Amino acid sequence: MTSGIHHVTLITADVQANVDFYVGFLGLRLVKQTGGYEDARQLHLFYGDYAASPGALLTFLVWQGGSAGQAGAGQVSEIALAIPQGSIGYWLERALTHQVKVEGTGQEFGETVLRMRDPDGFLIKLVSADIAALEMPDRDIPIEHRIKRIRGVTLLSDVQEESVDYLARYFGFTKGASEGPIQRMVSDMGDVIDIRDAAGFWPGAPGAGTADHVAVRAVDAAQVEAVEGELRKRNSSLTTLHDRNYFTSLYVREPGNVLIEMASDGPGFTLDETLETLGQALFLPPDTPDPETMKVMLPQFGLPGEERVAYRDLIYQHRFFTPDRPDGSTLVLLHGTGGDETDLMPLAHKAAPNATLLGLRGRSTEDGTRRWFRALGPAIFDQKDVRFEAGALEAFFEEASGSYRLDPERLVALGYSNGANLLGAAMLLHPGMVQRAILLRPVMVLDAVPEVDLSGTKILILLGEKDAFRSAGERQAEALIQSGAEVSMRVLGGGHELGSEDAPAIADWLSHAAFGPT
């Protein structure tokens, strides 16, 4: 049986910082970017050596803006990367230059170790190890100091001996030396899995800055299937077998509850890209519905040296989508109840393929559901909170216009349902906040309409013919008209939900009314 580490999968909350660390600082190559197999809306990045070899692969599930997790029992707590003998000093200086958090040096199993944290706080160890090197990309790191491959990982198990036996029995690792509470398991490739006795530790909590699983190697799919059959026969734990396109994988939890994947070495990452172009294209799982639309929802990033959005810390959490050929216009998107900053991006991209999209995330929650302001009951709105959030929205537009140099003459605000309700209210409370807006299935939420002048403001309102809130949307339209806004209102088929008629209606208004003469 072939044994060794195939890859390790972790979770990040900031894709750009992640790319800058693993490509820019560590010098790994981005070898593949895909949508997640369990959730195509989740970006999955793979880093490795130049040839994307098993044994050098670190992969990240991107939970953009997600909450931090907590390492504990039942998790991978550390990753060790092998570096050449005598390179610790180089990497310490490099870490200081790149402002990477360093936690010091030490000795582990006779090897010198430099401990540091990645941008999400996960512990990375650089280990001076006598282990065969893989070819890394030619970057700014001298060849004599480049990372060689994965050296090993540390598992936290509260049943250490059972975990040791499990790895030896099913995955081909052999028992090596022990040091304090750690039992080292060695593969025939020379990499290691250190199992730390975590009896009494708190259980791990998934989230950014934690590892999802470690994958061990198999020669081919047949070996993966053979191990799956053996585990199933012994009924040791629940197993799941998957075709991950680039490898066949088996998932199982070992006795200490760490998620272990067994992954075949082939067919490999050159299945759909050449060796020279690895990592340049974004791929989605074969069964992804409307994959081109789905790509719009995934977070974007730039490799070191490439142009990227420099995000600012503003009032609302937000995300940009930049099209291949931006036309200078920007659509600012406010989602409906329960949505997030990406929900309206597919619709907006269909309506305006060359517009830059800026999605915002509402700050209010009710029973765990994300909204833009509080409701006190069905159709009873917290007027104080509506006004407070309307002020926050005005402040966001002011800050974003300066921070991102948005052209006010080419900016359109678009809101759906709860997002449209706040946008409509904010326009009445803060005239001049935006000059162009699209309200999808809005209702009037202000108990008193202020006397304001919205002359020169252009608004498209799209209502649903069978929408139970249609009359409330018509009252919103009337209030805006009475305030002097130039309102185009259309009634589309369907109800409160968005449908196939919305994107063409938005595209038509953008082309013929939004940016034309007042």
UniProtKB/TrEMBL annotation:
Keyword Oxidoreductase: yes
Highest taxon, organism lineage: Bacteria
GO molecular function: dioxygenase activity
Record key words, sorted: Dioxygenase, Oxidoreductase
Matches recorded under Pfam families: Glyoxalase
InterPro entries membership: AB_hydrolase_fold, Extradiol_RC_dioxygenase, Glyas_Bleomycin-R_OHBP_Dase, Glyas_Fos-R_dOase_dom, VOC_core
Domain VOC: 4-129, 149-265
PANTHER family: RING-CLEAVING DIOXYGENASE MHQE-RELATED
Name of the protein in question: Ring-cleaving dioxygenase
Source species: Devosia marina
Taxonomic placement: Bacteria, Pseudomonadati, Pseudomonadota, Alphaproteobacteria, Hyphomicrobiales
